[in-house]
Amino acid sequence: MKWFYLDQSLFTDMIADALVKAGMSVRTSDKYEDSNSLQSKLELFEPDVILTSGWNNAHTESNFKTIRNYCNNSGALYVHWSFEDPLHTETWSKFIVNTGKPDYMFTHDYDSVEMYHRIGIPSSYLPFACHPDWQKTHIPLEEFSSDISLIATYKPWIDTEESYRIKSLKKLLHPLIENGFEVNVWGPGWIEHRNQLSFEIPKKCLRGPIDYKDISKVYSSSKIVLGIQNADGLLTQRTYESLACGSFLLTTDSPAVHRHFTVGEHLLTSMNPEDTVQLANYYLKHNKKRRAISSKGKSYVREHHTYVHRIEEMVKKINPYLKSKKLNSRSIVKNPVPVDQMNSQQQTNKFILSERRPKRIIIKKDMITENFKMKSAKLTLTLPNSPVARNPVIHCHFLLNELSDNMIIQGYIPQLSSRIMTLKAETSSNNEYYFDITELIKQMIESSNTNFGICLQPSVKTFTPQINLN
User: Mean pLDDT over residues 193-204, rounded?
Assistant: First the structure.
């Protein structure tokens, strides 16, 4: 199978190499690719699949239109792998869907797949990965060494105080600095914008931008690596890359982490600032335990999460569509819904999770957008990989007093009705359990004068929830 990869980013070589290792014939774009040279390359190479990913300078309107015209005339398949959902769905994903009209969308955000299905584009979840030739263990170097390191970019115009990313920083980075741990922060934006953060990072912690080729050296020279996340449904690129380098990774607890890794075996997660301090203290003192986890994490990610694995999954998903399009020589997207409806009829994770036991999931009425026409409501509980954490049920109550979000998070005891119902999981997959809460949400909305929301109390102590309203 012949693939043309249009890209001008650090992914160009990694993904192109993975395509070759997966048995594909590959051509890539030049550093400065205009629509005329792109058209010539496509006509000469005659690819079966054209792949774009992320968002970079090669992704111009004229290049997207060139790809679309070529695919319509040749029967080739245009595939885009989105690295921008959900943060930049409005500004970038809509643009590429409207301009390039991909035949198949892959997205690194688990919660965005349904959005593409809803507008008529075949889509699958495909997370980031590692490339073992690029991300590998080095001999620790003094210039990069630290007890704890964070590599990240800080953009205050994107990373607002209410963003998931900043909340992740407050769980991981802030408590460690506040408690005097040795922490190095690498990456652009921190030095020039440090005064825009709501907490102070000492100048001695800020190491500035770092060349991509040196990132693995930082990972190899740090006892603990912090992994901030951007959303519940995705894992960042650096999650996989740090593990591939043999790092001991401490990251935010989320459904995405539990979907791919076993906490305590491959990596560690923190639920709150207190967790972060306790875990850092413990594992800095217990070198053998820390190295055992980092070793297992490295082996696991290299065995299951490389870009070759992702390409193989991609080929498996698109093959039926490629065959169909070759027969019909036209776009396989049928009856597309207007692109403006992307994200317009879905609300995800509209809940608050109390941090103290017993952990409660609270859905307040004011979290549901007015006039939102709900068809279904699903709750997913991701449990730890433990033989005792199985077959959970959900005890459901109305919330009878009005509480602020902070009061709920801090564990303030709510006033609850008697039990409305107890829900059992409809289906399960590995350590994920799926509950239909449609009728419960409808009851909450319809009984408008008698409650302030609903409280869901799982029968298990440790879980990560995810709610989707459609």
Answer: 93
